[in-house]
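Exercise 3.2. Students should predict the tertiary structure of the chain below and write it as structure tokens, then compare their answer with the key that follows.

Predict this chain's 3D structure.
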Amino acid sequence: MVGEWASGAERSAERSVERTLGHLRVLDTDEHPPQRPATLEDLYRQQRMRMVRLAILLVDEPATAEDVVQEAFTGLYRQWSKLRDTQAAVGYLRTAVVNGSRSVLRRRKTARDYQPPHPGNERSAESLAMLTAEHQSVVGALGQLPDRQREILVLRYYGGLSESEISEVTGVSKGTVKSTASRALNALQKILDAQ
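Answer key:
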């Protein structure tokens, strides 16, 4: 994704992120092998936990992630009868989860601007229990990145999306996706080096 001109630090950060989020993606795929959903209920059973994990990586809070995913499924339910292809439903859900996560982060930022700062939400022990120490440090470092940078890395390495797909989901150009990913990997490596 970064390209041949990437610095050594960016390549190192990319390998770390790819190992960590790729590990989570493989766990999700092993847990729920992809099948063509026939009903909304099938889709819910197949995709709910994957979407919750995506939301957790974006908003860093399990309860809020659950709410974001529930809203995404509620929106899909309202549109289900108009859907021509049930495979498109997964893309709809992914976009809805990303947009819902953005809304949550905007509300958090607004709330922080009007309230005294408080300690951030710590990840639960359960959410990190299946990760090695290296993976835990990468997930922790992801949480320190600006929202858009974290979003793009999560969609690329956890979601397994291409630059074009990320561009479509986030509503930014492919060039912006590429440059943001490069900056994110560079910043992530600096955070990991400082740990």
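Discussion points: The chain has a mean pLDDT of 80. The chain has nine helices and no strands.
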